[in-house]
Amino acid sequence: MDARLDWSNDALFELAERVLPGAGLGGYALPEDIRFVFAEGAGARLRDVEGREYIDYVGGAGALILGHSHPAVVAAAQEQVARGLHMFGTLNAPAIRLAARLVESVQRGLRSRGYRPGPLVVDPRGGVNSEHSIKVLQQWMREAIDGA
Fold first, then answer.
1. Which superfamily does 9-83 belong to?
2. Which of 23, 110, 142, 144 could form a disulfide with 17 if both were Cys (CB 3.0 to 4.6 A apart)?
3. Which residues of 90-120 are buried (b: 16+ CB within 10 A; e: fewer)?
4. Residues 33/60, Cβ–Cβ less than 8 Å
């Protein structure tokens, strides 16, 4: 992109309205009078493209626990990026180790509540995962209602 272009919040929102459905990413949008374009974040603070600083009260999934740009997370991400980033559908050691940790953690939690869990189901498209999540939630709700 041309460095001479105006990269202010207003200019970027005008561009977003032309190139992004709903002028946003996903369903989240700030009200027009307080919206800004994120440039960087550290800890609980965000900075917009014009250099103004904000406190991140939303704490999205990526920054919820450790904040933005936590040094340990940055180092781990850089280490993995150097080894390769996208392995869609191909077995890789980090994915297998993560799945093992998730299965162990989820099954331990379920066993502590009297369930006998089966294997972890992973679907990169998300459809099967969503279906299984809904079934688990429905079962949990039935048991919670019956047990009340």
1. Aspartate Aminotransferase, domain 1 (3.90.1150.10)
2. 23
3. eeeeeeeeeeeeeeeeebeeeeeeeeeeeee
4. no
